[in-house]
Amino acid sequence: MATSVLQPAECRRDPKHDIADSPRLTEDERLAILEAKERETGELPPELRERARLEIREEPVLREEALAQMRHFIEKHPAIRKCRTDAPFLLRFLRTKKYSIPQACAMLERYLTIRQMYPQWFQKLDPLDPKIAAVIDAGYLVPLPKRDPEGRRVVLSCMGRFDPHAYDSTVMARVHSMLVELLLDEPRSQLLGYMHVNDEAGMQMPHVSLWSLSDVKIMLNCIQNSTPMRHKRTHFVNIPHYGVKFFEFAVSLLSDKLKDRVMFHRTAEDLTKHVDASILPKEYGGTVPLKEMIEEIKRKLLKHREDLLALDDMNIDLQALGKNDLTQNIHSTAGSFRKLELD
Questions:
Q1: What are phi and psi of 224, to 5 degrees?
Q2: N-to-C CA span, the chain
């Protein structure tokens, strides 16, 4: 069946005059311009192309062939009604799955399915939504402006900055989903991956009770199997004694590969033995105040607001999917998962 093709606004814009080489720019400003251009095309910078060939088998001919095959998959899929087909979007899946086209297509199908099954977590990602805006402004979740020495995008979460009395788990989930979607089209991140730094200082019992155990299982299953991110390292620091069991339970649900990439630290000093302090906010030993980082990410969110909202135009027909292996496997972690209702 014919499938509607959606293109994000960033991919429809006319190319601008190249100012990345202006001598007046700082190195950070020059890099920001280059990354913005890469985001529009999906192209990796020249210095990373050999690494992409060695690590994920990316070469120009294979890339174009894989993109064509994924577009054909989308067009002919009996359940996919609308889906983005631009290169930056499809490369999320191809690079995560190292150009295994069947695995990339399966992950795309799962990605569309969870968005449809759990709209309270994955849809209406509006940076102007009052609750989402307040959580962002508080500094609960902040992608750091500078990458780590290995080129990975670093995402900092500060549990103590999330008010569990004012906002529930769906707001928390949508904040995470919104920022993840903002980052997923970055070609460098698609190759080099992500590092997560989770500061649990200020965590209270109401934070722990925000999530039911079944929802934790479902969410972690979605993150591991349906979200095209290369999770390279996850750090936890300042976990209070009453939160230890919760995080032990959550980590127990991860694949062995992801379990091996989790590290726990008692203090910020211990954390900075493993994370370059210079890229962290000033409050953690860096140079840039957290407030400035928050303002920068707010500007980026507003710039891409149209693209974030347009994600909800994508649609997969759950009725047409039926009781296939895919929808059943989304809940394969435990028999207590909610069943997909197709009535």
A1: -75, -40
A2: 23
Which residues on neighbouring strands pair with residue 262, listed in sequence order?
234
Q: What percent of the chain has pLDDT over 90?
A: 83
Query: What was the pLDDT predicted at 251?
Result: 95
- CB burial of 264-303 (b: ≥16 within 10 Å; e: otherwise) equals bbeebeebbeebeeebbbeebbbebebeebbebbeebbee
Residue 48: which H helix or E strand, with range?
Answer: helix 46-56
- Looking at residue 242, the DSSP 8-state letter turns out to be G
Provide the strand spans (E) within the chain: 4-6, 80-84, 141-143, 153-158, 194-199, 231-237, 262-265, 315-316
From CA 271, how far away is CA 238, in angstroms rounded?
10
Residue type, 326: L
Please report the sign of the dihedral spanned by the C-alpha atoms of residue 202, residue 203, residue 206, residue 211: positive
Coil, strand or helix at 207: helix
Would you tell me the crossing angle of helices 244-252 and 213-226 to the nearest 10 degrees? Answer: 40
**Residue 25 to residue 15: CA distance in whole angstroms:** 19
| pLDDT tens profile 36-72 | 999 999 999 999 999 999 999 999 999 999 999 999 9
What pLDDT digit, counting tens, does each position of 204-234 carry? 999 999 999 999 999 999 999 999 999 999 9
Give start and end residues of each alpha helix (H) in 153-243. Answer: 169-184, 187-192, 205-208, 213-226
Whose tokens are 């920001």? That residue is: 32
Burial class (CB in 10 A: 0-12, 13-18, 19+), 71: middle
